[in-house]
Specification:
By secondary structure, the protein is mainly α. The protein starts with a helix and ends with a helix. The chain has a two-stranded antiparallel ribbon. Helix 4 packs antiparallel against helix 5. It is built from seven helices and two strands.
């Protein structure tokens, strides 16, 4: 469904890939490939100018949306700075409640702007974690795929071992039966003794009795 495709980590390719089938490529009807990505300078993306050497997450100062309220050090603890901003946000909310009760529009506007700046700083700090989140997501997916393949491989090896054991048992049984057949062919059983001759047919009962007495 459309929803499944939109939330899939690996969505389907764009529909225009059908323009590059074998017949179109052989006939020269396929569109020209897009130009390679620029290696220097800048380019336009959705109406915005993007520099090639810009970081993945632009600094807050370059966006001109809010003043920077957290540490300006190169390497700082994002979690600690978020905790500080959270405390400032709670304090500004308390100040806002007091200003609302005083009915002071100027102070209310000032505090609302400060709250907006705090939210923008917190959002920017969270956005700086996006590359790390993407790496960890890909790593977790690869580890899950590795574990799934390892489990499937282990199950296959277990089934192969069970099949080898069954084949070995069948070979042993066939070898035993073959040896028994060879032994029976080498020592055939003795022929059964011929039955004792009986009285000739048509003999009367008295004669049969005398015949049996004579044979005894």
């Amino acid at each position: 469904s459309l929803t499944t495709v939109m939330v899939s980590p690996f969505p389907l390719p764009p529909s225009f890939y059908r323009l590059y089938d074998s017949a179109a490529v052989r006939g020269g009807l396929a569109p020209c490939p897009p130009p390679p990505p620029p290696s220097d300078g800048s380019f336009k993306l959705f109406g915005a100018t993007i520099k090639v050497d810009d970081p993945l997450v632009l600094p807050l100062e370059s966006q001109n949306v809010a003043p920077r309220l957290y540490s300006s050090a190169v390497d700082f603890d994002h979690a600690s700075e978020l905790q500080v901003l959270k405390g400032q946000l709670l304090a500004r909310f308390v100040d806002l409640l007091g200003v609302v009760s005083d009915c002071s529009p100027e102070k209310r506007t000032s505090i609302l702007n400060e709250i907006k700046d705090i939210f923008l700083n917190m959002e920017h700090l969270l956005n700086e974690f996006r590359p790390h989140q993407a790496r960890e997501t890909v790593l977790a997916m690869m580890e899950a795929g590795r574990d799934r393949k390892a489990a499937i491989t282990k199950e296959i090896l277990t089934n192969i071992a069970a099949a080898d054991a069954q084949l070995a048992q069948c070979r042993a049984e066939l070898a035993t039966r073959a040896m028994e057949d060879i032994s029976m062919a080498a020592d055939p059983p003795a022929p059964a003794a011929a039955p004792a001759p009986g009285p000739p047919p048509g003999m009367a009962a008295a004669a049969i009795e005398r015949y049996l007495l004579d044979r005894a």
